[in-house]
Specification:
Length: 247
């Protein structure tokens, strides 16, 4: 998680550190004050569906909901959860799909990272559904040996690690959003100005509260879920009084 955040910060510094003598820095050219509030609003709305995926597995799970049920029922429960996850992920990415052609290059980059993360997780979930179906067939054929069970569990662990990496794209997209929301065209004397007004800022914070009302952290911290980390990096910027809103 730290690696991708550092890469993104380096990316923004490289863009912003050139040609101070020019009317607009390279970063400002790639991040003009266009569609910023609209994109942030869509981004935060999409996080509600990432939240639904998170809560599906953390507040409940097939092993909890179907405790004591037959193995085949539990297997079907896992597959049903994965199908619901993919439905939520498709809705989440659709919120940002129209921004892939935005005039603002940074918005396009952030949307692309988010959608890449969703598409990757969807593909991983499809693969896991296949594994569950195969394991169900193996057990039904009386071949549920310890060796086959170990192979099944190892395949699940591998997919879980790949899913974890894919969620990092969504966090990275949120980090880029905090760069997008800053204005490099209309700076105050301290250069700490957002490209949104106070009313818009309040609405975005209300959206964050709807996504994670109990998650009041600022920035990335150990032990956060990916959904919590994404909310925290955005909240840190929007609640920081150092950054002034547009008049």
């Amino acid at each position: 998680m730290k690696r991708i955040v550092l890469l993104l910060l380096s990316f923004s510094l490289i863009l912003g550190g050139k040609s101070f003598a020019a009317p607009l820095s390279e970063f400002a050219q790639k991040n003009p004050d266009i569609q910023k509030y609209e994109y942030a609003r869509s981004f935060i709305a999409s996080l509600n569906y990432i939240k639904a995926v998170h809560e599906r597995w953390h507040r409940s799970s097939p092993t909890k909901d179907l405790k004591g049920a037959k193995d085949v029922t539990v297997m079907r429960g896992f597959v049903a959860y994965l199908i619901k996850d993919n439905a939520d992920l498709r809705i989440a990415k659709n919120y940002l799909s129209s921004y892939l052609e935005a005039q603002n290059v940074m918005i396009r980059k952030s949307a692309d990272m988010f959608i890449l993360g969703c598409n990757t997780i969807i593909a991983i979930n499809d693969k896991e559904k296949q594994i569950w179906d195969q394991w169900n067939a193996v057990k039904g054929s009386g071949l549920g040996t310890r060796k086959n069970e170990t192979a099944f569990l190892n395949a699940q662990v591998d997919l879980a690690l790949k899913r974890k990496d894919a969620f990092k794209h969504i966090i990275g997209s949120g980090v880029l959003l905090t760069k997008i929301l800053r204005s490099d065209q209309n700076k105050d004397e301290k250069g700490k100005l957002l490209a949104i007004n106070a009313v818009q800022r309040k609405k975005l914070l209300k959206g964050l509260d709807d996504v994670g009302k109990t998650n009041l952290d600022w920035g990335l911290k150990p032990g956060q879920t990916f959904q919590e980390a994404t909310v925290a990096v955005i909240r840190e910027l929007l609640e920081d009084p150092i950054y002034k809103s547009l008049p």
